[in-house]
Structure formats: C-alpha cells, structure tokens
Amino acid sequence: MEQKGFAHKETITAPIAPPINLGAHNGTTHLKLEVHRAEQQTWNRSDDAGTLKAIGIANAVKEGVSQNKENQQILAQATVEANNDKIEQLEKQQEAQLLHAVLMTQQPQQSPVYRTQQWQQSKHQQTKSIDLKVEKEDMVATINKEEKATSAMENMAYE
C-alpha cells in the first residue's frame, strides 16, 4: 500500500477558492457573480423566512399545548370543587337522616295493641256514623209514612 502524504490530504480538504480573475467591474464574469450573490441572498432570505415561519408555527403549537394544559387544570380544579360541594351536601343529608333516625328511636313506640285499639275505635266511629245515618233515614221514612197516613185520613174525613 502506498502511503499518501500530507500534500494529498491538503488537496482533498482544502477550501474551494473563488475564481481569481473576476473580470472588469462591469464584465460578464462579475455580473454573473453579482446575479449569483443576489439569487443566493434571496434563497437565504426565503430559507430564513421559512425557518422563522416554522419557528412561529412551533411556538404557536407550543402555546396551544400549554393553553390546553392550563384549561385542563382549570377544568380539573372546577370538577374537584364541584365534587367537594356535592360530597359536603351528601354528608349533611346523611347527618340529617342519622339525626332523624336517632330521634325516632328515642320517641316511645306505640304498641301494636294501641294501634289495634285505635283501629277499632275508628271502625266503631265509622259504624256509629253509618248507624246514625241509617237511623235518620229510617226516622225520615217513618215520618213520611205517618204524614201520608195522616194526610190520607184527612182526605177521607173531607170526603
């Protein structure tokens, strides 16, 4: 294998030098160089603009993501607060029910015999009122019969 020297590496890695003879200031070579520079600057500007636009889009996306995270945190906080309020309401309701149950156990309970007596009394009162109605109807019917009989006797007496 041949060893290549330092000179060989220098030719490979040496920077490309611009042309030495650019021609006169208004020469064709110089104009070509100016046109090339203008095109390059235009491309660089468009690349920069594209890069800036891409950076702007990336920043907008990043801002949107952070806003979305903030919205989610706010929504989660509101949900937690609503759930806490609901839990407090349920606890108060449960305490009220428990207090009601305790009060009900402390009150003397009516015995089934007392309830039966109450039922019998109410039935007796109902039957009594029905009996009174029947008696009243019977009395009215009797009075009507007597009046008819009296009026019939009076009619016979007049005839």
Which stretches are poorly predicted, pLDDT < 50 over at least 5 residues?
Answer: none
Strand content: under 5%
Span between N and C termini? 173 Å
Morphology call? rod-shaped
Q: Considering DSSP H and I runs of 4 or more, what fraction of the residues is helical?
A: over 70%
- What is the tally of helical segments? 3
The biggest beta sheet is recorded as: none
Mean pLDDT: 74
The tally of beta strands, per DSSP, is 0
Topology pattern, helix = H, strand = E: HHH
Count of separate structural domains:
2
Class of secondary structure makeup: mainly alpha
Rg of Cα set: 58 Å
Can you describe what's shown?
The protein has 159 residues and is mainly α. It folds into 2 domains: 24-107; 109-159. Helices cover 84% and strands 0% of the residues. It has 3 helices and no strands. It is rod-shaped, with a radius of gyration of 58 Å.
Features:
159 residues, mainly alpha, 2 domains
Write the layout of secondary structure elements.
Blueprint lengths: L5 H8 L14 H79 L5 H47 L1
Quick gist of this model?
84% of the residues lie in helices and 0% in strands.
